[in-house]
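Example 3.2
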Amino acid sequence: MSQVTETAIVGTSALIERLLKGQFICRTTDEDGWRALKSPSTREHVEQYLNQINRTIGSAGEGEVFFCGYQQLGDSERKVISSQFKDICNALIPLVEWLVLVQEGSGQDAPLSEGVAVRLTELQTRIEDTPAFREQLAKISHYRLFGSTSTNVDAQIKLVFKRLVELGYLTRPNSEKQIYIATGKLDYLYEVIRFIDETEGLSLEAQAETATQRDLI
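Structure, written as tokens:
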């Protein structure tokens, strides 16, 4: 490896570490890292390093979200990917139902996407004022993914949002404010959903209908 390449890798080591930990790099979660990967020269240096350990840079959201994937797939790599895909599929129904609730509760025309803010207090007020939304939230919060046992709207919605931050779908820039920002991991989720729809021939509605009681607590 040339001295220039070594210097470039040292400068992007933290970014490489985040990629290898499975983090999704987008403008919302890491603007500096996102700008670095948007640069062809920096991306090439990172790609060269990752290729040495059978990794590669993947992208979603029309090239606005970056993550780490495998360059070549052997048995062990397939097992890891299969496990990751299974985790996403198991979380799919609660996540889709939550996305629908946010879209309907916020009165938005389009699904939540990277960089869009969700004001929890405003959403909570609308949910509390609408019986159908309260019922939806209760159902969503009791999925195993979130694990709420509360019957209180305030406790349910805060637990759901806290868990979504932990899972990387939301970020909360200011701990003093109840404002959450959607991350690029949501855009990746949409691509997974499209892939499932195309390969399985199932619409999201059909998938929701096939949910079983085991998905609930």
